[in-house]
Design brief:
Layout lengths: L2 H30 L8 H18 L3 H22 L8 H23 L1 H10 L13
Length: 138
């Protein structure tokens, strides 16, 4: 793995970990609040799905990368649109949280689309394996 591919792997790892954090926080907060035994199956399923998506992203799945680009771009644009809907009550904290969410999701989508190092990493992971059967000349 060359330096560019290694940097792409680090960026992909950061995005994968960042995608797991919300689901982990929900489970951790439920356990700390004393609801550990009553956590619904949908919360556990959401955590398992997030971990599976992160794992497939790290394994170089172009489908998962494309899905994350689409989902993050759409969600970020919807969050931006929600900021400009007239009559939407936005307090200061809600406005900041919505703006951060939009900025984060749009940034992830742009990084997955435009980063040369991420492209190099995914090209490396999706390269077909080759076996050199040529006989070296003496």
């Amino acid at each position: 793995m060359n330096a560019l591919e290694r940097q792409g792997w680090r960026i992909t790892l950061a995005i994968a970990l960042f995608s797991i954090v919300p689901a982990l926080l929900i489970v951790a907060l439920a356990v700390v609040a004393g609801y550990g035994a009553r956590i619904s199956a949908s919360i556990w399923l959401g955590l398992v799905i997030q971990i599976a998506i992160a794992w497939m992203l790290l394994r170089g799945s172009e489908r998962i990368r494309g899905m994350l680009i689409f989902v993050n771009a759409l969600s970020g644009l919807l969050a931006v649109a929600q900021l400009f809907v007239p009559g939407t009550p936005l307090s200061g904290g809600h406005l900041v949280a919505l703006s951060l969410r939009a900025a984060t999701q749009l940034t992830i989508a742009v990084i997955l689309v435009r980063s040369e190092s991420v492209h190099a990493y995914f090209n490396r992971e999706n390269r077909p394996a080759t076996l050199d059967l040529t006989i070296p000349q003496a």
